[in-house]
Amino acid sequence: MYVTGNVRNPGVYRLRSETSVAQIIPMAGGFTDWANQRKILIIRNEDGREKRITVNYKKIIGGSDPGSNVILRAGDTIVVP
After folding, report:
1. Tell me, what's the pLDDT at 54?
2. What angle do CA 38, 44, 45 make, to 5 degrees?
3. Which fold has domain 2-80?
4. What is the rounded end-to-end Cα distance, in angstroms, of the chain?
5. DSSP state of 41
6. CA-CA distance, 80 to 64, in Å (whole number)?
7. Of the candidates 69, 7, 61, which has an alpha carbon nearest to the alpha carbon of residue 35?
8. Which end of the chain, N or C, is less surrounded by CB atoms within 10 Å?
9. Whole-structure pTM value
10. Is 45 left (phi over 0), alpha (psi -120 to 50) or beta?
11. Where do the domains of the chain lie?
12. Is residue 15 within 8 Å of 1, Cβ to Cβ?
């Protein structure tokens, strides 16, 4: 899994157990001051096609949309604009 963009420690992260978007951000050092926490992009390869999932981190953490706390898969790329 690769985390890039406006996080403090972008890079490759190995998932040892089930990990969600809300868990990977702190693993990557948290957001920079310029991060758009409302439009985090997950790029996933499904059946040979690229799938893009947009996640609003603020809604997940605030509890208004906990269902959007996507469980990440090996090979996913997380982009924090």
Report:
1. 96
2. 160
3. Outer membrane lipoprotein wza fold like (3.10.560)
4. 17
5. E
6. 20
7. 7
8. C
9. 0.93
10. beta
11. 2-80
12. yes
